[in-house]
Amino acid sequence: MGERVDLVEVSPRDGLQNEAALIATEDKLALIDRARAAGLNRIEAASFVNPKKVPQMADAEPVMAGCLARPGADYSVLALNLRGLERALAAGAREINYVFVASETFSIRNNGAPTFDTLQVWPEAHARAREAGVKLAAVVSAAFGCPFEGEVPIARVMAVTEKVFAHAPDEFALADTIGVGVPSDVKARFAEVAKAAPKSVKLRAHFHDTRKTGVANALTAFENGVTILDGSLGGVGGCPFAPGAAGNVATEDLVYAFQRSGVETGVDLDRAIEAARWILDKLGRGHGGAVARAGGFPRGEAAARVA
C-alpha cells in the first residue's frame, strides 16, 4: 500500500439527503464543524438539485454560506445539470461533483433523462466550470449495479467514462450507489478506468456498505491506484431514487482500516467516532458503522496506565 489516502466526508450531503425528516441548517453546519474538528478537511456539504424532489437539500444556499464562513476546509457540492451547476457557482462553490448514471433507468429517475442525453451538456458544464475557475469532479453512479436493471456491464461503464474523459475533469469517481460491489469488481472496473484516464485526472471511489463490503472495496480501490475515497460519519446515507441504497461506508471504519494498515488519513479516529455518534444520536438511530459501535483498537490496561 501507499502512504496516504484522502478522505472526502459526504455525510452533510449524501448522508442526510435520504432522511425522512428535514434536518435543520444549523445541525448540518454543526456536523460539518465536528467533521472538521476530526481532521476531515474535504467535505461534500450540499446538493444543488430540485428541492421538490429532494427537500432535504432545499437549504443548499444557506449551507454553502455557512461553509464560506468556515475557512480552512475544501467544500464540494453536487450538481446533476447545468441549472444546478449555475446555482452552485452563484452560491460561491469552489468544487463541484457533477453526476452521471451508468444505467438508463436509474438515470431517468435520478437525473431526469437517459444517460447519454445528460452527457450532451457535459462539454458546456466543463467549460462553465473552467471559466469560473472551480475544481470539477465527474461521478458515474450505479457503476457496479443498478436497482432497476441489475448488472451494469463494464463496457457500459466505460462507454460513459470515455465520454466524460473527452473533457477531462480534475477528479473522476465510480460510485457503488446500492452497495453491490465486491473487491474483484472494484479491481476490474478501476483497471479499465485507469487505462482510459488522462494523466491529469485523479481517481476517486464512493462506496455504500449495504452488504458490508464497503471497507474491503475501499482497501481494494486504494491498492489499485485510487487515492481519494468518500465516507460518511456513522455510515449514514442513501439515495432517494434508488431502492435499497442503504448507508455509505462509515468514515470511521475507513480511518480505522487504513490507519491499522499503515496508511495515513490525517483524521483523528477518536474525534471521528465522537462525530459519528453525535449525528447518529441526532437522527435517533443505532450505530451504522462498526467502529462507532465498538470503538478503536483497545489500548489495554498497561497502555492506559502509561497514558
What share of residues is helical?
40-55%
Q: Would you identify the CATH architecture?
A: Alpha-Beta Barrel
Count helical runs. 14
Largest sheet: 8 strands, parallel
Spatial order of strands in the largest sheet: 1-8-7-6-5-4-3-2
Strand content: 15-25%
Question: Can you tag this structure with a few keywords?
Answer:
307 residues, alpha/beta, TIM Barrel, 14 helices, 8 strands
Describe this structure in words.
It is a single chain. By secondary structure, this protein is of the alpha/beta class. The protein has a single domain (6-306), classed as Aldolase class I (TIM Barrel, Alpha-Beta Barrel). 43% of the residues lie in helices and 15% in strands. It is built from 14 helices and eight strands. The protein has helices at 11-15, 25-37, 60-68, 82-90, 104-111, 115-119, 122-132, 154-165, 183-196, 214-223, 251-260, 269-283, 290-294, 300-306, and strands at 6-9, 42-48, 74-79, 95-101, 135-141, 171-176, 202-207, 228-231. Helix 8 (154-165) packs parallel to helix 9 (183-196), helix 9 (183-196) runs parallel beside helix 10 (214-223) and helix 11 (251-260) runs antiparallel to helix 12. The model has no long low-confidence stretch (mean pLDDT 94).
